[in-house]
Amino acid sequence: MAITVTIRSLMDGKPDPERKPLDPILKTENLWKLYHAGKVEVPALRGVNFDVLPGESVAVMGPSGCGKSSLLYVIGGLARASRGKVLVDGNDLTAMGDAERTKLRRSKIGFVFQRFNLLPTLTARGNIAIAQYIHGDGYDPHRFDVVTKMLGLEGRLHHRPSEMSGGEQQRVAIARAIINEPKILLADEPTGNLDTKNSDIVLEMLRRLNKDLGQTIVMITHNPEATTYFDRVVHMRDGIIVDGVPAD
Amino acid sequence: MMWQLVLRNLFHRPMRTLIGVMAVAVEVALVILIVGLTSGILQETAKRIEGIGADLMVQSPTAPMLITFSGSPMPIKIADKLAELKYVRAVAPALLQFNSTGGVETVWGIDAKSFREVSSGFVFLQGHDLQDPDDILVDDWQAKAKHVKVGDTYNLFNHKWNVAGVVEHGKGARLFVPIATLQDLVGAHDKASLFLVKCSHPDHTEDVIAEIKDLLPNYPVRPLKEFMTLMTSTNIPGLETFINAMIALAVSIGLLVIFLTMYTTVLERTRDIGVLKSLGASKVLIVRALLTETTLLCVLGIAAGVGLSYLVRAGFLALFPTLSILITPEWVLRAGLIALVGAVLGASYPAWLASRKDPVEALSYD
Contacts of residue A118 in chain B, CB cutoff 8 Å? Predict the structure, then answer.
């Protein structure tokens, strides 16, 4: 089990006493997601049952089209579940409307995407600060410094995405995702657009986030080597989880 | 942070922003100039009529308020009837003829003696009063615009006139010719377009009006002192409608360009909108970001539009010195407000569309 330490506790030098490490922070029960192609219903998720504990890092693997991304979008509140339940930190996403899911996403979820998805008009600093602005806490320079230093971005903050390498862009995306200390970090193939060297850097950063800061992470990946950085690997096929294998 | 995002977005596509700014600028300039031109002409005409110095003006029942375009001749003998009225000191007939060749102006055919009696007379900067049938008086603005001086020949209505005098502006018209010659030229023998009346005392103005109304029941009689307040777009039939139609046209242009600009902006930023949504941005925040961007674009356009208005006015006045374009702070504000409302309306649908985008679809948009 990962140590439950938040960025704030790292900043303060004290562990967060409010954390309860044993209840699942993410839980799905018989989760279904159906897409409509004309009059035909196409199931992407077919009754997924899945738990993630606080501070755990989980890699989700499976062939293309098995429902990995759909699972990530539904548990992240970006897409609505068709059936079943999704509990994030005790909040049932399936009972929430758009506005409530947006609010929950803002306060409890951080996303990292394969294509980085940085705002092209903003600098690295702006891309990270916009997350703080949307979160509503405003700009916290100390927290900003801790995160950017940890991700080795101090010298790149004034650069725009087009002026950065893929690895740097993905580190900015990670900084943006964790700047507000989300309960869960969801990563959708974060190394999919990176070379081996940068993939290793990003995976190492994710591991440090998990091990040093206790960040809960769910990552989708095609890369079997990436799974060695995670506590647990979950395999999906045809919209269901077929096993749960503890890593060594 | 919002401002940083808005500003960076605004300058990310400078050409698109420039087109949006120019569209608003043209819209604002059109409103300011159309209103400025109409109110300028009206006010300048009113000033010149007031400046004659007569007390009343009698027109034919069908004559328009804007006497610039006045034809509607009446028998000149009416002048004799008016002169017989109690409290009337003098009456001067005038035949007005609109000329649009080589410029836009109204020529007044006057009888020099009676015109002098009803007005306080011309202030001559050069030359002398109308004496010969082919004499013409030119006011100083017209003289400057046409580069004429006393002794020059002035071509008007296919007739060669001799510039007899250059007078100070503000006496009804810019060009004055003998009424008899003008009657001959336009085939309006013994006709006049209006009569200027001088009362024996200003206090008798109301009595004279009552007398004229008895004598000529359907003929409009207007005190010249009230002309300034009477010469507004609302009192000129069709002018208000024309102005409103022009404003609507200008607003439509601005609205459509802003709509198109923001619509393409939203399409281009589909993925960015998905990113903002993934970060937890609410619909309100997305709408606000786009409307703030529109507002900023519009404010730049308004500033450019006001500048453009003054530039165009300067250009027009250099080309046509006798033209009057009145730019008032009130209408600058109104034009700005109209443009702002139009722009926000134009951006509302794209902003609403952006706020409703499905984040998953938006994130996978190429």
Answer: 275
B279 with A131: Cβ contact below 8 A: yes
> Chain A: residue nearest B11 by CA?
A121
Contact indicator for A108, A182 with CB cutoff of 8 Å = yes
Chain A residues within an 8 Å CB radius of B4: 122, 126, 129
* Partner-chain contact A119 B12, CB within 8 Å: no
Domains of chain A: 7-246 (3.40.50.300)
Flag if B283 and A99 touch (Cβ within 8 Å): yes
The closest alpha carbon to A186, from A224, A215, A155, belongs to: A215
Q: Tens of pLDDT along B32-58?
A: 999 998 888 888 888 888 888 888 989
ipTM of this complex prediction, to 2 decimal places: 0.86
3-state SS of A45-63 is: EEEEEEEECCCCEEEEECC
Number of H helices, E strands in chain B: 13, 12
Question: Which residues of chain B does A192 touch, with a Cβ-Cβ cutoff of 8 Å?
Answer: none
Helix (H) or strand (E) holding B49: helix B14-50
| Angle value at C-alpha B121, between B151 and B80, nearest 5 degrees | 110
Give the span between the Cα atoms of A35 and B358, in whole angstroms: 13
DSSP state letter for B171: B
Between the CA of residue B62 and those of B2, B79, B346, what are the distances in Å?
A: 61, 18, 44
Neighbours of A247 (CB within 10 A): 13
Indicate the residue of A111, A120, A129 with minimum beta-carbon distance to B278.
A111
Domains of chain B, residue spans: 2-42+239-363, 62-219
**Of B276, B325, B332, B278, nearest in space to B302 by CA:** B332
From first to last of its 248 residues, chain A has per-residue pLDDT tens of 333 445 555 555 444 555 555 689 999 999 999 998 888 889 999 999 999 999 999 999 999 889 999 999 999 999 999 999 999 999 999 999 999 999 999 999 999 999 899 999 999 999 999 999 999 876 778 888 989 998 889 889 999 999 999 999 999 999 999 999 899 999 999 998 888 888 999 999 999 999 988 899 999 998 888 888 999 999 999 999 987 544 44
Query: ∠ CA B33-B36-B37 to the nearest 5 degrees?
Result: 85
Q: Are A99 and B282 in contact (CB < 8 Å)?
A: yes
Q: Give A 175-204 residues with CB within 8 A of chain B.
A: 176
Chain A residues in contact with B281 by the CB 8 A cut-off are 102, 106, 134
With cut-offs at 50, 70 and 90, classify the pLDDT of residue B322.
Answer: confident
Chain A: nearest CA to B354, how far in angstroms?
15
Question: What whole-number percentage of chain B has pLDDT above 70?
Answer: 94
Residue B285: list chain A partners with CB under 8 A.
Answer: 134
Strand partners, A234: A60, A244
- Using a CB–CB cut-off of 8 Å, the residues of B that contact A are 1-2, 4-5, 8-9, 12, 271-272, 274-283, 285, 358-360, 363
Judge: B285–A134 Cβ closer than 8 Å, yes or no. yes
The answer to whether the beta carbons of residues B266 and B351 sit under 8 Å apart is yes
